[in-house]
């Protein structure tokens, strides 16, 4: 096993965790709306925007 993990992989994990923390904060602030929007149960109020979650990439807003 390599004693020196890939720096980009380590950063990707850290950024993924930070994205999850931010999503949890937004969910708490919006009373659960954010997680419902991610699950597709609620619209986000503007038809030209979609929420997307990509594996390893965190949460992004796609116009």
Low-confidence stretches: 44-51
Q: Please give the largest β-sheet.
A: 2 strands, antiparallel
The ordered string of helix (H) and strand (E) elements is: HHEE
Q: What number of domains?
A: 1
- End-to-end separation in angstroms reads 42 Å
Number of strands: 2
Strand order of the largest sheet: 1-2
Indicate the overall shape: elongated
Structure, described:
The chain has 63 residues and is of the alpha+beta class. The protein has one domain (7-62). The protein has 2 helices and 2 strands.
Salient structural properties:
63 residues; 2 helices; elongated; alpha+beta
List the helices and strands and how they pair.
Layout: H1 7-29, H2 33-39, E1 50-54, E2 58-62
Antiparallel strand pairs: 1-2
Describe this structure in a few short sentences.
The chain is α+β, with helices and mostly antiparallel strands and 63 residues long. It is elongated, with a radius of gyration of 15 Å. The chain has helices at residues 7-29, 33-39; strands at residues 50-54, 58-62.
């Amino acid at each position: 096993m390599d004693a020196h993990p890939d720096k980009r992989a380590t950063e990707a994990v850290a950024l993924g965790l930070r994205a999850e923390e931010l999503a949890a904060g937004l969910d708490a602030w919006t009373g659960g709306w954010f997680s419902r929007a991610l699950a597709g149960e609620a619209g986000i109020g503007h038809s030209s925007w979609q929420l997307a979650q990509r594996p390893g990439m965190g949460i992004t807003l796609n116009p």
